[in-house]
Amino acid sequence: MKKILVATTALVAVSGFAVSASASEPIKLSVGGYMEQWAGITSQDDAFDNKNAFQSDTEIHFSGSTILDNGIEVGAVVELEGETSDDQVDEQYLYINGSFGQIRMGEDDGAADDMGLTAPAVGPVGVNDGDLTNWVDTYLPDTVQSSGDDPKITYFTPVMGGFRAGVSYTDSDESKNAGGSGGNLGQGTTEGLPVVSAGLSYDHDFDGVALGLSAVGEHKGQGNWYGLGVNVGFGNFTFGGSWSQIEDDYGINDRETEATKDTNNYDIGIAYAMDAASVSLSYAYSDYGNRSTKAMSNNISPSANGEISTVDLGLAYQLGAGVAWKSSIFWFDDDNDNSAADNDGYGAVTGLRLDF
């Protein structure tokens, strides 16, 4: 009799859970994404080959979520690349939202990459981790280094008094050697090294003055990078900048045979928005020691060390819902330790971005 009572009680509990679980809505995926189509003209040193005058970038995003009976949201995001024949899926991860914050599991940017602030820029090229290298042969300043979309777990705290913290962990892949191809975790950017990525941000509005601050960094292998960012908005203006230092032994791969130095980056910029139009002017500088030494298309192998300055004047105009016309006029001067790889020049790029 006791066994029957226990079995009956268990059956009722399971049935109650099933009824409770079925009360939540099933996950239905929605479709979004963007398409960018650009045309540009550039001028650089004669030693370097001209790049394609047309560039494009397209991603299709699938996302969906459901709210459980306990109020916790569970969802998924999958981003499909439209411009590659190799890794067709850009990012894919599961997330859980609740009063405790957010947890993500899957292939996504790390906490530092998500939380880092940089100078405002509205054009299609930009000076900080933008599309400059799509148009000319140069080093690209980057104050918020990304360890890539390798499998990881990330936790973001709730926003408390304008503050939010985040931390990510990417496991090592012992079957992958530095500089080799991905192993059983599919890692393609961390060289098989464990990565801890963390950030702290602050966002608050003080009587019409919006202040954003960030402190971010990562530890990978034996090295680190760390950086600071600030954005201040008042009226139609946004002013901001960022700084970072990358230690010389952070994620060493195809430059491990050359003596390198720490990399120092910074950018500064201002943007003005009025109705449908916005304009920005930004500058970035890098005293770098982490450049890839692989030969470029003209068989010139740059040194890992050098300096670059670059300026971008950006314009954006919202033509309609989800349709923006954007343009950039840019200049750069790259002084590499291998004088054969020195390059400077300028260019202009214009085109449309569609968000859907």
TrEMBL record:
InterPro entries: Gram_neg_porin_domain, Porin_dom_sf. It holds the Pfam family Porin_4. Residues 171-190 are annotated as: Disordered. Keywords: Signal. It comes from Thalassospira profundimaris. One of its GO terms (molecular function) is porin activity. Residues 7-335 form the Porin domain. This is Porin. It comes from the Bacteria.
